[in-house]
Amino acid sequence: MQTHSPRLREVGGGVLALATLALFLVWSNTFLAFEVLLVPRGGPAPMGWLDLVVARFVPVVLVCAPWCICLHWRESVAVVRRYPLRLAACGFLAVSAYNGTLFYAMQQRVSGPVASLLTTLSPLYLVLLGVFVLKERVGWRQIVGLLLGLSGVALVATAKAEGGSYARDVAILSLAPLSWSIYSLLTKSVTREVPPLLWTYLVLVVGGTPLLLLLPFHGGRAMMALDARGWGVLLFLSIVATVLGNAVWSWLLRHQPASTTGLTVFLNPPLTAVSKRVLAWLFPAAFTFTILPREWIGGGLALAGVALAVLGGGARRATPAPSPPAE
């Protein structure tokens, strides 16, 4: 199924830069929204990790399914018929696997800034997948990048006094970017023929619809018990960050190379840290900002490793059309 894009109007670099910054301000703050629902500073948590996985994708499915069915019925049917197994695998990886491991680890008190940092490891996983699955060559930059990345994760995992339990939670969270990397690898060839936004929305619908079966047991009661602030946070995650965020990301991909847009993965960790520092200053009763020295050092090493892997070309060849693991 070959698609032909209409001729695009030129968009200024300033507009693209502003849109990119706004998008990553939204995506970086999703990690703080997760904290509000999973591990608030005061009082009981509004949701458990599985509640949030289910509740986040109820509004997403309710918006994306009608968009695919009513506005793009023929294209959606053609994609489902051509890629049924790949679509199901991508739905599981991008929805349940990524969000489940991320939310579980954050419920165990892995902080938002640390979680944001660890989700940027996808380019390192893509290098490994490229070597072992696609038989790509790996250069010295990728080798050094992998070593730096692994060293950084090890420092972060051993930063707290909890020892083994915290290291286990960091290891579980590290599975989130692995899930996203496999999803990206499966998606790369598809989005050469299928519009990225259509594919992404179909993935969200296919991955999110089975979760609706869990709604009476997980997520439903928690959603009913949310106050106005809780609903605001949930809709921010579902509608603003996921539905609208992916639409903006798809628009950005249409106006600049994916390799260029993919480099913005480096924006998430610093923006998350800055946002939490500002919120902790403005609302000290609701947010606390604590990043240990070992976490700073480990984070710097991990980002340096990702930078080497991306700029070295290995991850760039595998740069996917889907959004970075931030939404």
Polypeptide structure, described:
The chain is mainly alpha-helical and 327 residues long. The chain has 16 helices and no strands. It has helices at 13-38, 49-71, 73-82, 84-107, 112-118, 122-132, 140-157, 164-173, 175-188, 196-208, 220-224, 228-255, 258-262, 268-282, 293-311, 314-317. The longest helix has 28 residues, at 228-255. Residues 2-7 and 316-321 have low confidence and may be disordered.
Keywords for this entry:
single chain, 327 residues, mainly alpha, 16 helices
Coarse morphology: globular
Please report the number of helical segments: 16
* Tally of strands: 0
Helix proportion of residues, in percent?
A: over 70%
Helix/strand structural class: mainly alpha
- Assembly state of the chains shown: single chain
In short:
With 327 residues, this protein is mostly helical.
Protein topology:
Layout (H helix, E strand, L loop, with lengths): L12 H26 L10 H23 L1 H10 L1 H24 L4 H7 L3 H11 L7 H18 L6 H10 L1 H14 L7 H13 L11 H5 L3 H28 L2 H5 L5 H15 L10 H19 L2 H4 L10
Helix pairs in contact: 1-5, 1-12, 1-14, 2-3, 2-4, 2-10, 2-12, 4-8, 4-9, 4-10, 5-14, 6-9, 6-15, 7-8, 7-15, 10-12
